Amino acid sequence: xxSARVLVPLVVASLAGSAGAIEIISNLPGNDxxxxxxxSDLRIKSMGFTMPAGDSYDLDDVVLRLDITNTLSTPIxxxxxxxxxxxxxxxxxxDNPVFTLxxxxxxxxxxSSPLTLDAxxxxxxxxxxxxxxxxxxxxxxxxxxxPTGLASHLGTTFVTTGALPPxxxxxxxxxxxxxxxxxxxxxxxxxxxxxxxxxAGFGVPNGILNND
Length: 212
Known about the structure:
This protein is 0% helix and 42% strand. It is mainly β. It folds into two domains: 1-14 and 189-212, no CATH class; 21-187, Jelly Rolls. The strands form three sheets. Strands 2, 3, 5, 8, 9, 11, 12 and 14 form an eight-stranded antiparallel β-sheet that branches. Strands 7-6-10-4-13 form a five-stranded antiparallel β-sheet, with no helix packed on it. The chain is globular.
């Protein structure tokens, strides 16, 4: 069996998080021109996305664009399942970073145990704060910037009643990214050939052609 490697410019996927992780969906960095208002135990914001068909992915981290006004803030950032284009059931509460400075920045929240994002399924990132914790804001852009990537934007919700899951309507598109790795070491998007139509190696992971 002979192998041929074809090298053409890189055009697919941003590397992020751990080795092998790719950016599933993102609208970062945004322009910070709007925000979801102060999140608290009552004010809860969510952003939804739908995974592509094909491979399932293991979540590496979720990155939120936050305005932290107190280093004692303890955001609660969770992944919820979807039902009818609204958050449905809690799947995981992500681990917080350590806040040493205040201000607007990108903050990474990661799962403490493996969490698989199934192909074709929809998920929601839900953010709020526990009672008694300092509030913080999840930033967005004006005009709105829809998240794009392998996954697709599903919607956004917001409540001011503390009700979970948060199913109230919202027009603010908050800034975030989801980074994940193909489950089980499956086929990663082609990072070496660029997968250019008409060029040898198109659609072949890593541009390696195996000819019997």
